[in-house]
TrEMBL record:
<dbReference type="InterPro" id="IPR051859">
    <property type="entry name" value="DCAF"/>
</dbReference>
<dbReference type="InterPro" id="IPR001680">
    <property type="entry name" value="WD40_rpt"/>
</dbReference>
<dbReference type="Pfam" id="PF00400">
    <property type="entry name" value="WD40"/>
</dbReference>
<dbReference type="GO" id="GO:0043161">
    <property type="term" value="P:proteasome-mediated ubiquitin-dependent protein catabolic process"/>
</dbReference>
<feature type="repeat" description="WD">
    <location>
        <begin position="254"/>
        <end position="288"/>
    </location>
</feature>
<feature type="region of interest" description="Disordered">
    <location>
        <begin position="1"/>
        <end position="27"/>
    </location>
</feature>
<keyword id="KW-0677">Repeat</keyword>
<feature type="repeat" description="WD">
    <location>
        <begin position="289"/>
        <end position="322"/>
    </location>
</feature>
<dbReference type="GO" id="GO:0080008">
    <property type="term" value="C:Cul4-RING E3 ubiquitin ligase complex"/>
</dbReference>
<dbReference type="InterPro" id="IPR015943">
    <property type="entry name" value="WD40/YVTN_repeat-like_dom_sf"/>
</dbReference>
<dbReference type="InterPro" id="IPR020472">
    <property type="entry name" value="WD40_PAC1"/>
</dbReference>
<protein>
    <submittedName>
        <fullName>LEC14B protein</fullName>
    </submittedName>
</protein>
<dbReference type="InterPro" id="IPR036322">
    <property type="entry name" value="WD40_repeat_dom_sf"/>
</dbReference>
<feature type="repeat" description="WD">
    <location>
        <begin position="335"/>
        <end position="369"/>
    </location>
</feature>
<keyword id="KW-0853">WD repeat</keyword>
<dbReference type="InterPro" id="IPR018247">
    <property type="entry name" value="EF_Hand_1_Ca_BS"/>
</dbReference>
């Protein structure tokens, strides 16, 4: 239904509503609005009706008046802006506009975001929960923020067993249960690029350990077989060598491997209670040490000369070996203090200090000058019987402290369960840090106080290894994760944690 004026409408251009109604400025009241009587007096004909169409006329009048009201609002807005100098341009919503279906918080943070460089926004970051909760908007990777940022680097369908930065920070490598070693270019510590995947020879169960040579040219990895594999880090070189540790009849597995400082030798800890030293240039085992009673889960070179060796075993003892004085293949001393098996050890590189993790749920700092000359075969056993750390919670120690504990300090709070959780020295040497079965990374001051806890993973995750970048405020975590949304499927993740300023 439309309304047509019987008069000429050539003058009706000022008001939009006067396109069909022959209305101009002269028909407005003093207040700028139209009256129904003004329109009715003009004598309109209504299509389809022979009677007056007062109802339809009233609706058109109301529409016109609403348009006029909007003009008045704009005028009042201009007056207010002049008087109090406040910009209402974003708060006045035009009548013809509609609200967005999804609220976009970016519109409310335009000024704040302009302070940062947009190109530095991480595309897949999430924040470590804090108290009070941190703002959940992305923060530039290299900002002055005091908030901690977690960035997933990779997600796999297989568990990740180790992951470490190179000594110069330009490489990161990780090994997983799918028998692949993944190499990342971390020249830019905030923008990793995976450039190579080494498909290893399939062995028993998983890759247990890996290590990068000091010159960044070679990576070694071990499995639960008596063989260590050697591969090039060069993207174009797919050479893979097998280095046999035991004899042709040996059926042991290798739990730990480490390069020497000159990249000429490899030390390995095996399930046959032995330590093997392999000469890469001669392509043969040059030394075998058998001083432990159970699996050797961890080995490490003590200094850059490669003369000092450390080994940690499920027999709870850490043994110190000096290749210059191996009398009958016997250790130089033993470090006593843990009451359960050793899961990991790492030397500081000065031939004096080392750090260890144990199934007794503690991390310890050692000074080899305090080592004991004891026959471990004659010492009493302080371990908890019938305890399998892979499936059971720790029931607690039999004694509060080992009677012969010679460690410098003890660090607790983390959980060493399910797997061989690892611990390390920070690059500056001022902190110790460790993974944990609860998915958190723990950083301690040397005095034993907890400095920081970084929640790398959520429920069902296990942080097996951690690696501190040599000069950036970054720790990379290698996780076991359980995907609750995929029938509880197990997998692995590498997560990069960057902490804010003044938090460490």
């Amino acid at each position: 239904m439309s309304i047509h004026s019987s008069q000429d409408s050539s003058d009706s251009e000022y008001h939009p509503a006067a396109q069909d109604l022959d209305i101009n400025n002269d028909d407005e009241d003093e207040d700028g609005f139209l009256d129904v009587e003004d329109i009715m007096d003009q004598g309109y004909e209504v299509d389809g009706f022979s009677t007056d169409a007062e109802t339809d006329i009233i609706l058109d009048v109301l529409f016109f008046n609403m348009q006029n009201l909007r003009s008045s609002i704009v005028m009042y807005n201009c007056i207010l802006r002049t008087l109090i100098n406040i910009d209402f341009s974003e708060t006045i919503i035009p009548m013809e506009s509609t609200f967005p279906k999804i609220y976009n918080p970016r519109k409310n943070t335009t000024i704040i975001r302009s302070l940062w460089k947009p190109k530095l926004y991480p595309q897949n970051t999430f924040y470590i929960p804090s108290s009070p909760p941190a703002i959940t908007n992305p923060t530039p990777a290299r900002s002055n923020s005091t908030r901690d940022i977690l960035t997933p680097v990779s997600r796999l369908r297989s568990r990740i067993y180790s992951g470490q930065f190179s000594q110069d920070g330009t490489f990161f490598f990780s090994c997983a249960q799918d028998f692949r070693v993944r190499l990342y270019d971390t020249t830019d510590a905030y923008d990793w690029k995976q450039y190579k995947t080494i498909q290893g020879a399939y062995g028993s169960w998983t890759i247990t350990d890996s290590d990068l040579s000091p010159d960044n040219k070679w990576v070694i990895y071990s499995t639960i077989d008596p063989v260590v594999f050697l591969a090039r880090t060069d993207q174009e070189d797919d050479e893979l060598k097998a280095l046999r540790m035991g004899s042709a009849y040996c059926r042991c597995g290798i739990w730990s491997v480490r390069w020497s400082a000159d990249a000429k030798e490899i030390v390995a800890g095996a399930s046959d209670s032995s330590i093997y030293l392999y000469d890469v240039e001669q392509n043969r085992v040059t030394l075998r040490l058998g001083g432990h009673k159970e699996d050797v889960n961890a080995v490490s070179f003590g200094d850059h000369s490669s003369n000092i060796l450390f080994s940690g075993s499920d027999d709870s003892y850490i043994k110190v070996w000096d290749r210059r004085s191996l009398h009958g293949g016997k250790e130089s001393g033993v470090l006593i203090g843990h009451t359960e098996g050793i899961t990991f050890i790492e030397g500081k590189g000065d031939g004096r200090y080392l750090v260890s993790n144990s199934k007794d749920q503690s991390c310890k700092l050692w000074d080899i000058r305090k080592m004991l000359n004891k026959d471990t075969d004659s010492l009493p056993d302080y371990s908890v019987g019938n305890f399998d750390y892979r499936y059971m919670p720790y029931p607690g120690p039999r004694c509060a402290r080992h009677p012969l504990d010679c460690s410098v300090n003890t660090y607790t709070g983390h959980s060493v369960l399910k797997t061989l959780i690892r611990c390390h020295f920070s690059p500056c040497g001022g902190f110790l840090y460790s993974g944990s079965e609860d998915g958190n990374g723990y950083i301690w001051n040397i005095d034993g106080s907890l400095k920081k806890r970084i929640p790398f993973g959520g429920d069902g995750s296990c942080l097996r290894d951690v690696s501190w970048h040599p000069y950036e405020p970054i720790i990379a975590g290698s996780l076991w994760v359980e995907d609750q949304g995929f029938r509880g499927a197990e997998g692995g993740m590498v997560v990069r944690a960057q902490w804010g300023q003044n938090t460490i």
